[in-house]
Amino acid sequence: MRVRGKNYTAVWMKGPTVYMIDQRLLPHQFRVAVLKSYHQTAEAIKQMTVRGAGSIGAAAGFGAAQVVLSAPQKGFTPYIKKGFEILRKTRPTAQDLFYAVDRVAEAVKKTKNLCEAKKAAVAAAKAISDQYVASGEAVGKTGAKLIKNNFRILTHCNAGWLALQDWGSALAPVYAAHRAGKKVFVYADETRPRLQGAKLTAWELKEEGVPFAIIADNAAGHYMRKGLIDMVIVGADRIAINGDAANKIGTYEKAVLARENNIPFYVAAPTSTIDSACSTGNAIPIEERPEDEVLTISGRTKTGTIATVAVAPAGCRAGNPAFDITPAKYITAIITEKGVFKPDSIASLIAGKRRIN
Ligand code: MRU
Q1: Which amino acids are annotated catalytic?
Q2: pTM for the model
Q3: Among 28, 74, 133, 267, fewest CB within 10 Å belongs to which?
Q4: DSSP secondary structure, 45-86, as one string
Q5: What are the chain's domains?
Q6: Ligand 1: which of 26, 237, 293 to mutate, judged by most atoms within 8 Å of the beta carbon?
């Protein structure tokens, strides 16, 4: 992604330090968070300084490399095991988090001494990050073929540059189509409670010059019924082998509405998001986040400061599931870096692949 004349990925590593764009501050401030230990990187994932499945994966991979870089010779194995576990416990739904930590762990397992282990961990983490950039570009190229000139596309949450290191998953086809000269218009669901659509997707689309409008989460049905939406593309945090997909809360209802209105509903994701351990979406853990995210709202005041204000009477309770499951039957196809697949054939993409933990 290009911001203010400079190329960025959402997360990167230099020496033993991890850097990430602080997504909690966008679109109001552009700041880079500096994380000197794996504990700090784990906390940044938990607090959503970085978010979006692929960028969480990249951060977890770099965090796992920090674990290995800080490990002592004596007690190496229990030390890294504990560090990997701390990273694994940060966010439960995004499969790429587990994929990345497992991949670094696997690379380390093949080494013979501490020096080799450190080199292998950093190399694996960098390879994971590069893989996300390449996957996003490939998803973009493939997905753009499904977008016709003058298409109006609905998306939910943020599944762009910020969510998959560069390019993105759901937004990658939009960027590729736009760059190829097709006219596209995006309807971005605001995505309460954290407003990833209004804040992050809107920021990206503005930077890229793609025309768009932010709509309230409950407006999508109206736009669909009016014939104003030609396709829906969303990302995924985890895909079960039967094609059920977990994504940001509110995705499921958009899929049902799309079916009701005969609008194609696509999920875009790299194959690293498929979890061979989940036979259906029922096995995907759904993160429950703090009640405060629903009871408050944050934004920039007229004086330029960022403020959080209450939206409900004091003492209210709230439910805050961060994701929901869209059953495979509502998904037209899944766009991956390996091509476009019907949900019921997604398992063939990971044949032989097993979770290590
Ligand atoms: O809670 P978040 O902001 O991490 O949720 C992000 C999403 O749900 C995205 O749509 C998903 O990660 C796909 S983007 C690669």
Answers
A1: 237
A2: 0.96
A3: 74
A4: HHTTSS-SHHHHHHHHHHHHHHHHHT--STTHHHHHHHHHHH
A5: 2-137 (1.20.120.420), 142-286+322-350 (3.40.50.10470), 288-321 (no CATH)
A6: 237
